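Hey, I'm writing a tutorial for new members on how sequence and structure tokens pair up, and I'd like a real worked example in the thread rather than a made-up one. If someone can provide the structure for the chain below, I'll link this post from the tutorial.
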Amino acid sequence: MQTVAVREIVVAANFWVDDFEYYLNEGGKSERTIQSYLLDVRSFASWYAQANGEEFEVKHLTSFDLRAYRVYALDDRRVKPATWNRWRASLMALCGWAVAAGVLNQDPSNGLEAASIVEMPPRWLDRSQVNRLMRQAERLVNGAGTNYGRWQAIRDQALLALMVYAGLRESELISLDVCDVEIGERKGRVIVRHGKGGKYREVPLAKEVRRALGMWLDVRGADPGAIFQSKRGGRLTRRAVIHRVKEIGRLADVQISPHDLRHTCAKRMLDEGTPLTVVQKVLGHSRLDTTARYVTPGWGDLERAVERI
């Protein structure tokens, strides 16, 4: 098959793009997922146009096209299996819409094979890395040279604590309002009103989180609105959370992302003997097998195993 280098995403203004996006919205997909699906199908449409010499139209889509794209992705582009599997999911969603809308009489994605992969477990931090990270966060508080620097450091310490010890996603953190947190001397909880998939849950707060959040609320004040604010007073953005977590990680010599901290929370609970069903409730997973991934050995476990040979 001819190798095609897809450098640009060029799609004519066809009705299917808007209709497909509406279909995904109606299906309850998150905005992030929708944008990922649209990007993937636009990339496919661009490849289709270059490979076949004609503009892509959903009504002309065949299983042959999808199988050819799989060969292109895995053999020519040599994308990772996980990348192809994501593209496949996007194309299957497109086909599902096309059949539901009557654009296609049958689903051409039936039988479209996924790429096999030995799935690695989520990445988490070990205890020494968590200690370095949280110690660095406190050092930034103690060493701040300006009022704003101290304000930011106390806020960031509370952000980290909610991820490491309560397992919140960054999207859940930035959506929290003051009324969503209850803190007492011996217990506390945070209310996640719009978790992944719009799910509501309540998460108890450990002592370390209550301490960090209490410090932050003392500085922030009790005014209603977003708990975590930017320098200008608006709600903190997801990009800002990612940036601050990575920066503190860099200073602590720990390469991390916010989701690594959520994974760390799950792994630590399981290592302490917490039942899988309880961890599932804390994290807000819909399926138990998602939580079960944290029981499998991590990359560090595999490294230690081969070093012992």
